[in-house]
Amino acid sequence: MPSVMTKSLWDSRRSLAGFALGTALVGAMYAGFYPQVADGAMGEALEGFSPAMREALNMEDLSSAAGYLGSSVFGIIVPLIAVIYGIATGTRAIAGDEEAGYLDLLLAHPVARTRLLLHRFLALTIGAFALAGLVWLAMLAIRSGAQLDTVSVTQFTAQCLALALLATFFGTAAITIGAVTGSKAAALAGTAVLGVLTYAANTFATQIGADAARYVSPFHYYIGHEPLRNSFQWADLAILTAAIALLVSIATTSFNRRDLSS
């Protein structure tokens, strides 16, 4: 039978294309507003935010390209859509097929559970990197026209690589919850709650005096050390990769042990 990974990518081609194009276009649109922001057009709007809120949302330096992109485009908009893609794809990977009755049919063929899960994970990863790659191309396409030249190609590459790993992390978390429970609702709800809590931990930990909380958040390793200013943060990328590998290990072990007939 054909590769499960290839089949998974083919079956999800429309949703992947929609997410990737949508993320790239929305990111490029908001990035294109930078010249107006740099000219002070956002000054009055920011007056309503307290200093603590500006710090939490990383809105203290909107005059620089890296500061603006890090607070809005890559701080909120693009990662939100990328995480939604990861969660939606990861939820369907195991739990979605199991609830639909397709998983039993698939496993009736000579396909080991480990192979199935790993191929679904690889399809998720390829999709996440494709999405991040399209965002990277969109940023480079508008870089000169939107006055974003102070952010180098390497710095955009570093941030988009972190974006791909962030989407993969949440997608893998959804796969893991689905592999453990067999419930699509549990995978979707559990990963959504994880996303909200970890985003809040990274954003508001300092304001509530719980600095250590941000170190358990994948968002901290995604953007905490500002790849748009400081280029590749190899330690952060390694931590995200290790967390993904741990989740894959848990998912594989649980999926192989669970009685799918119950």
Automatic annotation (TrEMBL):
Keyword Transmembrane helix on entry: yes
Stretches that traverse the bilayer: 67-88, 121-144, 156-180, 187-210, 237-255
Keyword Cell wall biogenesis/degradation included in the entry's annotation: no
Keyword annotations of the record: Membrane, Transmembrane, Transmembrane helix
Protein name: ABC-2 type transport system permease protein
Organism this protein belongs to: Micromonospora luteifusca
